[in-house]
Write a structure and sequence with these properties.
By secondary structure, the protein is an alpha/beta fold. Helices cover about 55% and strands about 10% of the residues. It folds into 2 domains: about 170 residues, P-loop containing nucleotide triphosphate hydrolases (Rossmann fold, 3-Layer(aba) Sandwich), CATH 3.40.50.300; about 55 residues, no CATH class. It is built from 16 helices and 5 strands.
């Protein structure tokens, strides 16, 4: 039969939600959905499948466990305009976890994410001119306000990716307290961030560069016999060749222009100010990080 969840990680995309979801999945008192990012309450087609389908995502839950899922589309208003209302109607007592990061970095990281595994044919500047989806999702107060129409402040746990990276143990204990499970469970001591954008990019490039050669029977047979060090040397040679550089440039995310970075800092300034006041935290380090970084990191 399954059950309904006790908590939801609603976003933001590219802010550590996958890492937190995977960590919670190792907690003996927590059952996470069999499908990450079900986006049941946001997507109309998913919502039309009904509660029987949604409950089935937790059919493996044990009686003593609390249940939860993570769908970053839940914090993408106005793309999914009915999300908060649907959650409130179905799960009025649910606990909501919202993780945020530097909004400029998040927007760029999302652009890289949606272009993964394919040649990048559109610049970041062209993308944000064509659609405001990435920028809307980085306007955290805009997203929070949709939920405050239906939920109290006490229903939320607001987190920052910066804290999750630099103080993982404290943040994870905070999450455990919030959802009502033991803080002393035997879990991995170090939180491994799952969204390693640069590593994923390098893996993609390696696969694309070597694909034509791996399709050759003799090469495919040889690679099973050669030691890893020899294969790495062969790849290094291919990567440095004109062919390898051409392939790499097809998939390499174009850096954000300095004027775009400045424009986005100004665009998010008021939202960040309101968020800082709402959270009671100084968020000026976000602006400082973007100003001093020559490139916005992928992640």
């Amino acid at each position: 039969m399954g059950r309904l969840p006790n908590f939801l990680i609603i976003g933001a995309a590219k802010s550590g939600t996958t890492s937190l979801f995977q960590w919670l999945g190792h907690h003996p008192q927590i059952c996470v959905s069999s499908l990450k990012e079900p986006n049941f309450f946001g997507d109309d087609a998913n919502y039309a499948r009904g509660l029987t389908y949604y409950k089935s995502l937790f059919r493996h839950a044990q009686l003593h466990q609390v249940c939860g899922e993570a769908s970053t589309d839940y914090a993408k208003w106005p793309k999914f305009p009915n999300t908060a209302a649907r959650i409130a109607q179905t799960l009025p007592d649910v606990k909501l976890i919202y993780i945020m990061r530097n909004p400029v970095e998040r927007a760029y990281s999302y652009y890289v994410h949606i272009n993964r595994n394919r040649p990048i044919r559109e610049s970041f500047e062209s993308y944000i001119c064509r659609t405001t989806e990435a920028l809307d999702a980085s306007n955290y107060m805009l997203q929070i306000e949709q939920y405050l129409n239906y939920f109290s402040r006490e229903s939320f746990l607001f987190l920052l990716l910066d804290d999750l990276v630099h103080q993982p143990q404290q943040v994870l204990q905070q999450v455990c307290r919030f959802i009502g499970v033991s803080e002393s469970a035997d879990l991995p001591r170090q939180l491994i961030m799952a969204n390693q954008g640069s590593r994923h990019f390098e893996d993609t490039i390696r696969g694309k560069i070597t694909a034509p050669f791996r399709s050759l029977p003799l090469v495919a047979a040889a690679t099973t016999l050669l030691p890893q060090s020899w294969r790495d040397q062969a790849y290094h040679f291919l990567q440095q060749s004109a062919y390898g550089q051409a392939v790499r440039n097809q998939y390499l995310p174009r850096p954000m222009r300095a004027e775009t970075r400045q424009m986005l800092m100004e665009r998010f300034a008021e939202s960040n100010r309101r968020l800082a006041e709402f959270l009671g935290r100084d968020l000026s380090f976000w602006e400082a990080a973007v100003r001093t970084s020559p490139d916005v990191m992928v992640g």
